[in-house]
Amino acid sequence: MVFLLNTDFNYLQSLNCISFWRLTFVTMNEYFTAVFSKKNLNETRTSCIKCGECCRRNGPALHRDDLYLISEKILDRNRMILLRRGEPVMDNVFNRPQLLNEELIKIRARKSGTWTCFFLDQSNLCSIHNKRPRECRLLECWNPEQLINYYQTDRITRQDLIVSGSAMEELITVHEQRCSVLEIARLLKEEIEDPGKNAGKMNAMLAFDRSFREEFAKKTGTDESELLYYFGRPLGELLRPLSVFLKKNPQDFLLAD
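Above: the chain's sequence. Below: its structure in C-alpha cell form.
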C-alpha cells in the first residue's frame, strides 16, 4: 500500500505492527528478495548471514509453541506487548492494511519509536537465540514459505496467560468493556463522517482509560512496560493511526460482533 509510505511515515511507526514481514510496503516474497539481493548479489543463500535485518524490522508474535518461554521466564511481562482486537496493522501476506481481528501478544521493541526487537544485542545477534520464539525459528528470508503457512496459527492471547477467575481477569474484562478498541474505532468512524456526534463519548472513554491505568499502576506498583502487556497501548495513542486507517479504508471497516 504505497499511500502509507507517501502519506505518513510516523503513522507507520505508531502502528508497532505485528512483525517486520507485515510492515513493509511490498509483498513478503518481494521484500525478502530485495534484502537477499542487497546482501548477496552473486550468491544463492541457504543459511542466515546474521545481518540482523529481520530483528531490526520488529519482534515476532507469540504462539502456543512459545508458552514455555514464558513459564521458564525467558520472556518477562515487560518484554512483551499486547496488540488488541481492532488495532490497525499491515498484513503483508495479503498486502493490505487491516484492523486486527483478534488480540495477540508479541515481543516489544527495545526502544519507543523504533521497531528493533528487544533481544537484538549490540553485536547484531539474538541474546536468546537458543530459546527464540517459533516465528524466529521458522524465518528463512530466502525461503519464507514455512513462516507464511504458520504466522496466523495458534497465537497466544491473555486468556492463555491469566489465571481464570482471578482478580486480574476481572480487571481485564472491565477494561475491555469500557475501553474497547473496536468501540472507539466505531465511534471515530462516525465522528469522521459527522463531526461532533461522538466527541463526548470518546472523551469519556479516553478519560476512563487514563484513570484506570493510573489507578492500576498506583495500587500494584506496575510500570509502563507491564501496563502494555496487560492492557495494550493507551486509547489516546491509537486515535491517530485509527483515524488515518479509517479515512483511507472506510470500505474495509468490517468488524465482527
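Residues 2-252 form one domain.
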